[in-house]
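Final report, section 2: Outcomes. Of the targets proposed, Low temperature requirement protein A is the one most frequently requested by collaborating groups, and we therefore present its record in full.
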Amino acid sequence: MACGLFFSNQLLFWFLVVGTLINIFVVMFASSRLEREYERTNMVHIIKDSLIERYGLMTMIALGEIISILYDFSKTPINWNRFIQFTLCIILVALLAAVYYQVLGELHIQLNSSIATSLTGWLFLLVILFAFLIGVSLHLVIIDGNLESKILFSFSLILMLLMIRVLFLISIHFKLSKLEVKLSWILLIEMIINLAAAFLPAMGMILLDILVLIIIAGQGRIILKR
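The predicted structure is given below as tokens.
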């Protein structure tokens, strides 16, 4: 608040960007000191299950905020079109949560360096960030349904799914079976479909994204059973 008295909004935005980048990459410059601290305290390079659970709770809050925004929007005025939009959006959010927690429940991440451990933690934060972006862009989609808001939503959804996939790959040290390699190519196709869906009407885009998320959830069950 105090900074806003002395700097313009545009300058504050760039301060925020620079500060965020410093927070992300500072571990690379302090890696040797961080590694010595790990050795001194006999710490192992893992993301603890308790920390993964906290990231999961933060993501749950983000997804809950999406539902709250959608509920407030659906109340006025009430009509069948608004009700159908609200229902489809809730289904989409529920499927997104199912895909995320399906992977989260199976993550046991052990790494070989302090840098990898810190950067993996940032991947969880990126998942949460993209969840919030999905909420904002989905709200914009159902308000006016313009192409820009639909593209923002599609990119946010794709990037969140991509971060979830990367976290899973890190947990298995990128050692994929032949089936998982095939499913990875299918996932890439599904992400392209998600992006192409942005050029459909809003309701069509949401329906297609729901279908893709159902398929992704099914693929997740196949992988986790092996």
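The beta strands are 46-47, 109-110.
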